[in-house]
Amino acid sequence: MAKKREITEYTIDPAAQKMIIRAESMGIGTAFSRADNMVPCNIGAAGMCCKQCGMGPCRLTKNGDVGVCGASMDTIQARNLTRSIAAGSAAHSDHGRDMAFTLKAVANHETEGYTIKDVAKLRQVASLNNIKVEGRSPDEIANELADLYISQFGQQRGVLVPTKRATKKRQELWRQTGVLPRGVDREVVEALHRTHIGDDQDYAHILDHAIRTSMADGWGGSMIATDISDILFGTPAPILGQANLGVLKTDMVNVVVHGHEPTLSEMIVAATQDPEIIEYAHAAGAKGIQLSGICCTANETLMRQGIPAAGNFLHQELSIMTGAVEAMVVDVQCIMQALVELASHFHTKIITTSPKVKITGATHIEFDEHHALTVAKNILKVAIDNYKNRGEIQIPDDKEDLIPGFSHEYINYMLGGSYRASFRPLNDAIMSGRIRGVAAIVGCNNPRSKQDYLHVKVVRELLKQDVLVVQTGCGAIASAKLGLMLGEAGLDQVGPGLREICETIGIPPVLHMGSCVDNTRILTVLTQMAEEGGLGDDIDQIPAVGLAPEWMSEKALAIATYCVASGAYVIFGGQSPIGGMPDRVKDSDHVLNYISEGWEKQFGGKLEFIPDPEEMIKASLAHIDKKRAALGLPAWDPTKFGKSGDSRMLELEALPLEQRREAIYG
Ligand code: SF4
Ligand code: MSK
After folding, report:
1. Which domain holds residue 295?
2. Which of 40, 185, 499, 606 is least surrounded, with the fewest CB atoms within 10 Å of its CB?
3. pTM to 2 decimals?
């Protein structure tokens, strides 16, 4: 039975609430209202329905039920999950493939507008891959690196090259368990093959391949995407940015870029600075062009260029609800088809650009890196021409500052400086107990839960418990919108030990590490922490946990699985796609148990679905403390730590002499 929620049950974000009220007053549907109206099928939601062939769909509702072909509940759930992981891995990895082809084209001077911005990273990545760098030009190195990376997608035998960046111990574990991925495409194709009717029918064996497929993403396609994005557009470093719908401007042409691949958005950033385009905007009566981002495109342009983020996944419709967006330019992934209908109530043009993505009713201007700047300028001209068609607008004034851009290179540098960059200070802080552990809080928004609520609840609580938080994707934007990513602004909300570290190093307590493909940066940080010493010799020993409280996309499932394969405990909020109905169908939880206890036995990491945020927090802290105890580290004790040297000195200096003596000498 459909039930309409209150506005405050939809989202905690005041800007979003204002736009949902506007949508309701205009009779326009959004993902929030559609989620109310669309009651999910409980059998499908539990992963107990198979539609893999024309003899079905088969819905298994009782213990011992099998499909027409005889497929068991376990097999069907394992196949459903593996197919989702394959789709998520394919999406991320195809992004990586496009980046590799762009690098090749840039190295051969076949593109318009791109250069290799970070030659140091190019040389570093090339060296990691045993490509000779001495005495060679950046183009030569980039050419060879691009060839190597392009080959990783179609590789048929051998081992994906980036897996060599894992700890020696982890590589050996993967070898023993037989899950080392060969080529990205090979693993995704095999996942689809194995889950076709009449193939792999042992649930654990199917799920082994889910691990292998996800690793082809995390230690393959996504890692390649991050490497090349940094090489072409610069490795992120802290920069001032802003987030939320208040970044839209009343007197400028608002262009919102949405999707994932930075190739398009970076060129649109460049085109907005072109004098011809600025003049074109002035001639149209606008003060200029205000570019902003949604979803992971926002993260890409925010952390490299400081371009403001208009919001996360559920803000894509709400930004158009302002009436102030001349064009929303999209490429791939997380783009709602509903945008076109919603935009028809306003003047907004939805412009698709990828040869892979068209939406009925949208304007298609195909992007081509060979003419990138020209295409970007053409897109902006369409937006500028549309400025005159603007109707009544309502831009919420909500926005927050933030400092994004904490790449693993920058974290390493900030901890040790140019000459002694290392993860030693972070490891020491964890070992001493100033930092209790690390939490990566990532992933999407989902209109079935209150937007940003779970993200922010978990972030805030873990910070109070001295857990350092790193974030990517839409979760990062959730914290940014609430002001948790700005040095001082967040520090009054964190535990004493963590505060001491943040004040000493000069960092916010929540570190923005990028887009959803950039979860590989987190793998790199964890690997380097393990290699630094003092926290065991592999990721599964580090007091760390990964959370995706509001997940919705198949990419999130792929990320979770490669993190588990790498040794991490991963907690998802919301609904498990293979939750079964253990209360009604006793044996429907085998797969759920296997991805938790079964995977933990093999890889030291596990995947669990915990909808209640309090339980999520409890499980995270219990895991962190268990890992601390296993390492022989002191139990977390917040009373031991308090002020960093600087703030303590300032406090003491403010005291009259006698009291100062008393405070120091007792
Ligand atoms: Fe039913 Fe088997 Fe076909 Fe699935 S593969 S739809 S369980 S007959
Ligand atoms: S955009 S995958 S909603 S994080 Fe990467 Fe956000 Fe999730 Fe898309």
Report:
1. 241-389
2. 40
3. 0.95
